[in-house]
Amino acid sequence: MNEDQPVFVISRAAELAGMHPQTLRQYDRLGLVSPSRTSGRGRRYSLRDVATLREVQRLSQDEGVNLAGIKRILELEAEVQRLGRQVEYLRSFVEPTRRVFTADPRGDVVATRRVARQPRAPQQPRAITAAGAVVLWRPSAR
């Protein structure tokens, strides 16, 4: 079963999470968990939603975190996951080709085109001037 598939009605999700259905409704209103909706506006919870509900309960009861703090923790965890996926995406573009990257409307980095790597002549370090310039060089090709 896909963990994102919305299959549980509110009473079953509440039972699985060890909560009262009214608590799930409150968490939905607060944006802690956002279940899918049926055409009749009924809530449908996924396994991921149930796991989130359990984490909310753990943070609240065991750690003493208030609901606003829990919401912020969940937002930051989602951001970390999104950034991790973006890093993996960027790492997937390895030598000997290079990619040109741009930002999409949401601010995510996307590859736009591939550029063939041109062999470069080894560069010597630049001389330091009397003005105190920084010495820059490129490592030689492997």
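(ticket continues) Second input and output from the same batch:
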Amino acid sequence: MEIVIITGMSGAGKSLAIRAFEDMGFFCIDNLPPQFLPKIAELASATKDKISKVAAVVDIRGGELFDYFKDVLKELKKGMYNFKLLFLDAHDSVLIKRYKETRRKHPLSAESDGSILEAIQKEREKLEDIKRYADFTIDTSTLSPKDLKDKLFEIFSAQKSQETMLITIMSFGFKYGLPLDADLVFDVRFIPNPFYVDDLKHRTGKEKEVKEYVLKWDVTKRFLDKLFDLILFLIPNYAEEGKGQLVIAIGCTGGKHRSVTIAEELFELVKSKGYRTSIFHRDIEKDVKG
């Protein structure tokens, strides 16, 4: 019996997510009051595998009922149900843009005098404790609907046959903001910058010439030795604690040169150790400083 509880910020993609779970063969329920979760789990278990996978969206549309969500999660854990909590998030500016484009009302707009930003901030406060319970957190700020669907398939379709932790290596640019779903963040802006080399300025960290430039420095070699040692120490310890996903973010100024090269190096190392690993270059296509 597999249960995925989907929650997170309004506008972060929960409706898209529930459709993806339908495509994966889950029995799906949207806008479920949290108090119903134990009963749904009990009823699904009683079907003797006729319903073996359930995905339910639980969010602040539940009003006052949502206030009991944390207590319900504790109850589910006591019941030994195999459930995962998926939290979808996005930067405030992205959420505001999405609401303006769709012209939909935020669920907390009545409490915020119609201010979208104030409603978003109130929702963040309500979800702060819930987010700490998440097994998987996905920042959808830069993801297209297809990207989100692919990411969910990557995580949850593999869960059927393999319960090992998924490790995502991400490069990003600090000027575009920190990734909200990162568990570990490393700043590589101390490495000499290929942006200031005319022949490398408009290339990316995936190209041979840029890689050679970034990796040739002693400071880079020393950093990679220390980074590799730390990551290979942390991964089995996170896995031992039952963590389902580990997102390691490598950042430089614009996410085009140094962070990409270092992320690629770390990805190859982790993959070579037999871990389930993916890589994502968030800002590589943005034509800015590296």
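Agent notes: The CA atoms of residues 108 and 122 lie 8 Å apart. The radius of gyration is 21 Å. Closing as not reproducible unless the customer responds.
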